[in-house]
Amino acid sequence: MDITTLSVKTKFRKVVHRNISRKAYLAIGLGALSPCVYAELDITGSAQGKSIFQEVERQDEDTLSLTTFSVIPQVNATYQTRTFSGLWSGTLTHLERDNDDIGQTQDYAEYSYSAQWAPIGRALVFQATGALNYRNGDSSSFLVSDFLTNSNSLAKTRNNTLSSSLLIENNNWVNAQGSASYSDVASESTSANDTPLDNDSYQLYGSLTNGEYARYLIWEVTGSYQNTASNQSSRGDFITRSAEAFTDFRVLQKWAIRLTATHEANQISDRTDTNSITREFNSYGAGLTYRQAENRYIALTINRSDSDTSEDDDETFVGLDLLWALSSRTEIGGSYGRRFYGDSASANMSYNSKHFRSSLSYSEDVTNTSRLLSNPENLGVFVCPVGATSIASCFQPASLSYSPSADEQFVELNSQNLDFDDRIILQKRTNFQMGYDFSRVNLGVSWLYSENDYLDEDRLQRTLSMTTTLSYKLGSYTNLNTSLSFARIDGQSEDNTYDGSSDNLNATLGLDRSFGKHLVTSLDVSYLDKSGDLSFGGGLYGSDYTDRRITLSVTYTYQ
Known about the structure:
The chain is mainly β. The chain has helices at about 25-30, 370-375; strands at about 40-60, 65-80, 85-100, 105-115, 125-135, 155-170, 175-185, 200-210, 215-230, 235-250, 255-270, 280-295, 295-305, 315-325, 330-340, 340-350, 355-365, 380-385, 410, 425-440, 440-455, 460-475, 480-495, 500-515, 520-530, 545-559.
């Protein structure tokens, strides 16, 4: 087995002392200059060599045996100052495959980056994030598509996001918050979808709330606008706008009268069919609020609707708004009301202790694939170093508001199951993440359920996925790693094109051993299974197959 090693590490610190005149003092306050500037550049490299022995059993076909050799160099660069932090990570996966008939060579280059500049602390922040990677574009092959199996289902995807945010807080009467962002998403076509993604999105958000002196009048106004402009004329632009406002007039020590109003509109412009109709929904109402503190209140209202659709127009419904901090470690929140498609709800819960962390969310959004890729939900409960391959090197943060450093990131144990067709969907999603970190054990559990209702066509898709990851330290240099992921995908449509179901399983048992600080060897046994009658033509081995693997790897790093 050939192993290529590439590792570089460079660090430097510089402290610059300057005599700054009074005329430059304003610039100091804005964070443009500093009498003491601290900077650190850290460049690390690693390389991994693998030998993979694979046996694939296909329905009604002969068993396929494959041997794959791979070399995976990776370079990470982080840069940190008092006001700026940045990360760039690049990986090249080189595969050489041989089977009974032919051999082939494949290369996959990927990168990701993130940068943040905060010249005035939290008041003004500029961010840039992006990645080029390969994502599964066939929802029926969720969890069982990678560079070795169903590689034709992977879509080379690029996304970049630039954003800025402004925060004016701790004022006497009015606090303000605003943000603006631009993102572009593009992908190549796959065997499951001939139409690639190619969109630009613009998003604005703003909110005004009462200041610290408010005692008898608590109020808030929020609004957002998002335009996802497709570069393909057949799809049109997807435009969403929303606004919400409430006021609480205090009548007793902890009781208030609430007035509330909401607005929502979704439209696909530049279309000549019925799908271009604006789905607009407005409501207004009144009720009562019980409030103990800023993060402890519950409001109940009676509301009236004003909608473009006759079945939702002039309807009376109950609204609920809840935020309750049970302790400094635990917080729950939720809302209930009505939108243009009927009853609507959202919920979230978070808990954090020294060794245990969990989060739960439920949301309903009108969206598409490009928006989901550019604004992913992250409920990660583990903080891991960049490039970590297992949770053995990860840890639980000490608080719910932990901010990762430049070379750290929150890691989710599951991922979304997406179709790369960019149709407008109503997505209802429940996401649960749990992590435990104590002594020799790192344990992560996730549960994700999503229901995608396609508004442009009579089609529905449901995905239920569960993942369990465990790392156990057998000794100072040896870890036992296990991972078990299962997904059930169900589809149905009016023309029966998307009807069917698929049960996908991905399980791995591995053992790794460290030799000093830089060298790690590992042995992994994997089992992948796909069964059912749901297939969109992207799977290389069809809708029913079993993939067994034995992987030997050597990884060299220098940090």
